[in-house]
Amino acid sequence: MHIEEMDMEVEWNEEMERIWFYQTKVGEIGIGEKFGAIVRVTFGRDMGGLPEEFDMTETPLLKLAAVEIQEYLDGKRKTFDLPLAPEGTPFQKQVWQELRKIPYGQTATYGEIAAAVGIPKGARAIGRANHENPIAILIPCHRVVGANGKLTGYAAGIEIKKALLTIEQGEQLKIRE
């Protein structure tokens, strides 16, 4: 289901996530906030990655996040100054925290992340946690590659993963300009 097909008359409450969509050079992204922290960055309006109920409202924090993400996509920002509050299991949060340690322009393998979180043979578990990452780009799961350095799995597709890594390597982005 896409947002255009939904009845957007939902009564907002403070526990409800606020989401706004922005056009970028890698396509449309949705950014969500809850309780003053970013909880979601998704690609497109596919409802599979969005909560059942949300408030379609642009907030100052969402605007700031959009600016920082656009600066990143333009190759002008390497770190983000945004409060993040990803929702997940304790293990997922541990993995996502480790992903945030991968420096801009560099990659790590699933095995390296598994070893860093104390599960040396847990590459598949790392892959699953990566797949469940609700805050793309800001929690850089795109920086995780296969053991041989090959680009593997990315919720938004390998082309987007490749584009993000290309930006970080200082090269010009050649998709959706």
From TrEMBL:
CDD domains according to UniProt: ATase
GO molecular function: methylated-DNA-[protein]-cysteine S-methyltransferase activity
Catalyzed reactions per annotation: a 4-O-methyl-thymidine in DNA + L-cysteinyl-[protein] = a thymidine in DNA + S-methyl-L-cysteinyl-[protein]; a 6-O-methyl-2'-deoxyguanosine in DNA + L-cysteinyl-[protein] = S-methyl-L-cysteinyl-[protein] + a 2'-deoxyguanosine in DNA
GO cellular component labels: cytoplasm
InterPro entries: MethylDNA_cys_MeTrfase_AS (IPR001497), MethylDNA_cys_MeTrfase_DNA-bd (IPR014048), MethylDNA_cys_MeTrfase_DNAb (IPR036217), MethylG_MeTrfase_N (IPR008332), MGMT (IPR023546), MGMT_N_sf (IPR036631), WH-like_DNA-bd_sf (IPR036388)
Ranges for domain Methylated-DNA-[protein]-cysteine S-methyltransferase DNA binding: 90-169
Alphabetic keyword roster: Cytoplasm, DNA damage, DNA repair, Methyltransferase, Transferase
Highest taxon, organism lineage: Bacteria
Protein known as: Methylated-DNA--protein-cysteine methyltransferase
Keyword Coiled coil: no
Methylguanine DNA methyltransferase ribonuclease-like domain mapped to chain residues: 21-86
Species annotation: Anaerotignum lactatifermentans DSM 14214
Remaining remarks: This enzyme catalyzes only one turnover and therefore is not strictly catalytic. According to one definition, an enzyme is a biocatalyst that acts repeatedly and over many reaction cycles.
Role, per record: Involved in the cellular defense against the biological effects of O6-methylguanine (O6-MeG) and O4-methylthymine (O4-MeT) in DNA. Repairs the methylated nucleobase in DNA by stoichiometrically transferring the methyl group to a cysteine residue in the enzyme. This is a suicide reaction: the enzyme is irreversibly inactivated.
Family: Belongs to the MGMT family.
Record-listed E.C. numbers: 2.1.1.63
A Pfam family of this chain: Methyltransf_1N
Record: active site: 141
Lineage: Bacteria, Bacillati, Bacillota, Clostridia, Lachnospirales
GO terms under biological process: DNA alkylation repair; methylation
Places the protein is found: Cytoplasm
Enzyme class: transferase
Membrane-spanning ranges: none
